[in-house]
Amino acid sequence: MRFSDIARSCMQNLLRRKSRTVLTVLGVIVGCCSIVLMISIGQGINEQNKQMLKNMGNLNDITVYADGGGSHSMATSSSVSGAGSEQAKLDDDAVQNFRSIAGVAGVLPQKTMSYSVDATQGAGSRYVSQYVNVVGVDVTQLEESGYKLASGRLPMRAGEVLAGKSFVYSFYDKYASDSSNHRIEAGGYYCDEHGCVQSEGEDPFFDILNSKITLITGANYQSPDDYRKVGSGSVAPSDSGSGESPTITMPYTVVGVIDSSANNYDAFTSGIVMSIDDMKTLNVKISGDTKANTSSKVVYDQVLVHTQDIKDVADVEAQIKGAGYQTSSFEQTRKEIEKQSRGIQLALGGIGAVSFFVAAIGIANTMIMSVSERTREIGIMKALGCYVRDIRMMFLCEAGAIGLVGGVIACLISAIGSIGINMASLGGFSVENFGKAIMGGDDVSRISVIPWWLFVVAMLFSIAVGVIAGFGPANKAVKIPALDAIKNDQ
């Protein structure tokens, strides 16, 4: 028999008992939908965990400290002290060594300002930001280390700095009333007597890009309790009263805004990022030591090592620890979360597999009944000279067709159900939520995620279940002697 003859005979036999075929296909649909949706919920949990870690920090980053610095990081990781007895220094030599490690994409040394810093902007220092985070970095390594600019450019000369995207919202108008002296960025909250409400975003007092800002600091500088009492000058007084450390003011121009997705209150999100040379110059001004050499070597507070791939983190981190440094990363946390996600996916998949097993029993029952009802037909086919393999293939095709039809319909229903679940969780049915439910996004938290490969696996699995369930009845059919089959009334 030709395959076309087998396929036509398969279709005719399935349509001969429509009710039985429909009920069997329905069992496959239920089983396939169950396993697809259960696995998709597990994928959704995995996606939510990745977004949570991404919001806390870049998963490709390793923060390196010289001593005891792991406690300063928000990352919950295994910060293990190096084995070396001599304290390793985070200097330029160490930075070069980190860059030579295989799998490292960028190395960003950082020196944090250890003094209190305020920032002012506008005529009469009208806009004020207190307790500003200021960090000095190698600005040429920002993009290689995973940081991107939302606008502007990198600093190219002295006095040019970068600002975190939330820095402009840290300013308040010292001449305005308390109720209107600040601006709230999108996603922030404002509170009144009726409670707290999430803001859709307000325009800041000024455009931070290309703005002239003044940093106010000093060795003993203390930010005043009320800037309105300072006056219209650009310098806030020091409260030390000793006169040994004057208040320093340094003008800077913001030439770029860093696009940081992490919800951290650091300089890259809500502060000032300047070059290492500008940081040296500022520290010399604060110390008042005119003989200090700004070209001297710097011992960094920490170094950010950005790997090329998340798979390289463990190996790179191990090599850095072996060199005598302490590290902090999300690698251990990520592995624990992935382990938990796999456990949840296996549990959910097992629940769906039970439904699929029931569907396989239904297919086997349908094929056994089909063999019993068509015993005489099988005998006639054998008497006419049909090969045994053709008879077996005919029954296996019928079982596989039931699995294929059920799998395709189940995938369509699962896709519609997944989109509906996601749209409901996103706040309702709309064109915007429809796109988010399918494509997701950095700010989208989906409950059900069905990757393309899951549809393919589901359909192949449905066909395989059908064929396996029909294998026993098919073998039974070919073993029936032709003479006995012809004598059978059925």
Automatic annotation (TrEMBL):
Spell out the protein name for this chain: Efflux ABC transporter, permease protein
Could you tell me which PROSITE patterns the record lists for this protein? PROKAR_LIPOPROTEIN
Pfam families the record matches: FtsX (PF02687), MacB_PCD (PF12704)
Source taxon at top rank:
Bacteria
Indicate yes or no for the key word Cell membrane.
yes
Q: Which family does it belong to?
A: Belongs to the ABC-4 integral membrane protein family.
Q: Where does the MacB-like periplasmic core domain start and stop, copy by copy?
A: 21-155
Give the subcellular location: Cell membrane
Residues in ABC3 transporter permease C-terminal domain copies = 351-481
Annotated organism of origin: Bifidobacterium catenulatum DSM 16992 = JCM 1194 = LMG 11043
Record has Secreted as a keyword? no
The way this protein sits in the membrane is described as: Multi-pass membrane protein
| Keywords assigned by UniProt, alphabetized | Cell membrane, Membrane, Transmembrane, Transmembrane helix
User: Where does the protein principally reside?
Assistant: membrane
Query: Where exactly are the transmembrane stretches of this chain?
Result: 21-42, 346-372, 393-421, 450-471
